[in-house]
Amino acid sequence: MATVSDDEIHVRTAMRILAFLIAVPLFLAGGTGLVFHSNGPEWATKLKREWPEELSQTAIERGMKSTEIDAFKGNAVRFVEIAESLAPRPIHAAVLAFGILSLGLAVWPRKRGTGRSADRKGAKDDAESAALETIEDAIETLPKKDRKKLLKAAQALEAEAGPEAAAEFLLDQNLKDDATEVFIRGELLSRAAEVRHGQNRFEEAADLYGQAERHEAAGAIYAQLERFKEAAECYLSADKRSVAGEMFERAECFREAGQCYSEIGFHRHAAQAFLKSGCEPEAADELVAAFTEEGGGALQQNDAKTKDLRGIARKAGELLFKLERFEEAESILFRAGAYGHAAKVAFQRGEYERSAELFLRVGRGDLAAKALERSGDSTGAARCLGEYMRDKGNDAEAAEHLVNAGEHGAAGDLFRKVERFEESGEQYWLAEDYSAAAEVFRAAGCATRAAEAFEAGGQFDQAADCFSESGDHERRAELLEKAEKLFEAGKVWADQGKPDEAIRLLQQVEPDDGNYSEACSLLGRVFEEKGMHSLSVKKFEEAAGETAITRTTVEANYELGRAKARKGDFSGAIEIFEGILSFDYHYRDASALLAEWKENAENQRQNPSTGPQTNGTGIPQMAPTENRYEIERELGRGGMGVVYLARDSVLEREIAFKVLPEGLRGNPNALRNFLREAKAAAQLNHPNIVTVYDAGDSERGFYIAMEYVQGTTLKEILRHRGEVAPGGVIYILRQMASALSYAHTKRVVHRDIKTANTMWAADKQVKIMDFGLAKLIEEVRNTTTLISGTPFYMSPEQTLGQNVDHRTDIYSLGVTLFELATGQLPFQKGNVPYHHVHTAPPDPVSVKPDLPRSLADLILKCLEKDPAARYQSAGELVEEVDRLTGK
Questions:
Q1: How far apart are CA 719 and CA 731, in angstroms?
Q2: Which of helix, strand or coil describes residue 509?
Q3: Please, which pLDDT band fits residue 135 given cuts at 50, 70 and 90?
Q4: Handedness of CA 752, 756, 761, 765 (dihedral sign)
Q5: Could you give the CA distance from residue 273 to residue 242 in angstroms, rounded to a whole number?
Q6: What pTM, to 2 d.p., does this model score?
Q7: How far apart are CA 840 and CA 45, in angstroms?
Q8: Does residue 550 surpass a pLDDT of 90?
Q9: 148 has pLDDT over 60
Q10: Which of 231, 214, 197 is nearest to 78 (CA)?
Q11: For a designed S-S bond to 166, which of 157, 483, 488, 525 qualifies (C-beta 3.0 to 4.6 A apart)?
């Protein structure tokens, strides 16, 4: 087989490439023309209208930009127009046939050589590639087919059919530049722009589109060229302000962008653009417009839209505030419910009261206070700050501010809450809430102030009780008189050595009064003390009555008999006492007195010249002190009398000299027992018990001389310092339990353990006072109102009047420990005796959360209602303390 030379290979390759390059355009042109010819011009028009729109919709779905979409649409339209231009030409079939023939020649297989050709396969491939490149270069530089002839034909056609036909003819001949010139000359600028666009001569195309007033197409090209400002101006001319705004933003012409957005109501976009351009007034206006148009006048609470709109309003408010457009700033912030921000604006405007009102709406009483302070309303400022602090739980600080605001009732409530009772009482007093003032004064231990508050509130009974606690018995009597309790008032005056006042009141007691008999009896004693014996006897006789002795009249008969004995009428006294013994053989000391008086009566009968050998009281005489104790000053007063600092002139030492109420002289049995108990107490010798030195009668009254302890009571410590730390409670407990354990082994029960009866000495020793007095309290409670125990510390069995033993001290110690550990009593409101008998005490940990559980359990065991459930001895308590402390 013949071989093929290299030159032949090159020629054949070039011919095939040339045939292919000619075949493809002819095939496409002929085929498109045939389609258009077969479907008619209406189909072409429809295709030109609908196809670009469908392509645009596809482009939008794929996320293309508006500028890219517009360019895409333009290219599609141009393609349809080119195809349409081929439709009416009759040569389309011939062109198609020639295109098919050329394509066949290009792709028809050729015979492959052998021999030398096969041996040079690699070289042949390289030659074909080089030939192809040479042919392509040649096509680009081929001269036009008789260009002058074609131009002359176009001129003739222009003269005959117009510039459009001539230009289209030149386009058919691929003379695009010449065609463009004809289109421009014929003012077919849009068509000229399309040709230039097809040539990718974009700037010229955009300029021509602009001249043709196809601004949107021009804008799309400028956007492709990233000449965004020109694009924006074109879109603006096309009234496409949304796209124009976007183009201006890309060109960083933010002010112009903002104006575009503003004109079409895109207020948020406008505001952002204006902010970027530094046009803050315009930005503020756009934000206000956005807020208003998007429903800012009717905001719902806490939904997403509300939060978004409030954010817009706050931004607008900030800008308006910065621009010193304060009124507008406050208005939009208020409409948005951004009251805190609105308040700040009002403050800046100097509208301080308005600012305070708005701050209060958002719970910022502290800022409202500053605004009111600036306005000169210091009272209102204090009120706002006080209420703010109260809401924050800072009760003590809130109370101080409310005091300055004159809100005395509210301040009193808060001071009471933090247990600053004395200050609470003063505030309630200023608020004229005297009942509340009295209650907290009493809790604070300020008996006098409590009494004054009760008196101011017209609660004279309670006021009298408080004056009794403070030791002001004269004021107590005055208040009892105001309360129309004439008998009780007269009794107090009598006990205080004011016989005339006593007589004045007791004589006003009516016969139908339940206390009439006692009033007569008391008048009898008063008359006796004044030496008015006849009146004394008459009153005792009136008290005793003429009927047989009853439980009601036995006491009056007893006093009548003693009165007759004091007058020396032993016969009359004997007769009366024999009647008493026939009624109640064991009544008080009637049997002993009767024997004494019979002996005196016999002596009188045997020796009439000898007067009575007795003072007629039936009370054993006690040795007078003969000025042994020199009073230096008063230390304190209480329900059991007055305590003085005195000096023992015999033993040359300071002592505490306690004088008991004078009214005790009317209860000889109680005094006998008192002396017995005092004697027993004097036998107690323990470092944690106040030592009793002496007891007797003096010119001041019955007394107890005891160890003088420099220090203060635990009650005073609690009042001034508050609760004691757990370690301190344990320290005090061990000493008190040790003292009680010692006393109980001596068969001495205190019966009135409490913080007021326990001293904290200067040497940090705890000392329990008043051993021997508690039993006296119990014995005289039913016959006199001079002495009354406190119910806050009494055990259930003691409250019920049952027999008590040493375990009652353990219960009272539990109450004392509760008060020390928590700063308050387990029961301090309501019916306290009832609570001690029936109500379970609160857990100390619920009052003082940081209290150790072991200490709280110890206190609760002491407070068991059933004595058998408590610690059974104080010694057991000492052991428990040692176990807790690891000793």
A1: 19
A2: coil
A3: very low
A4: positive
A5: 13
A6: 0.39
A7: 102
A8: no
A9: yes
A10: 197
A11: 157
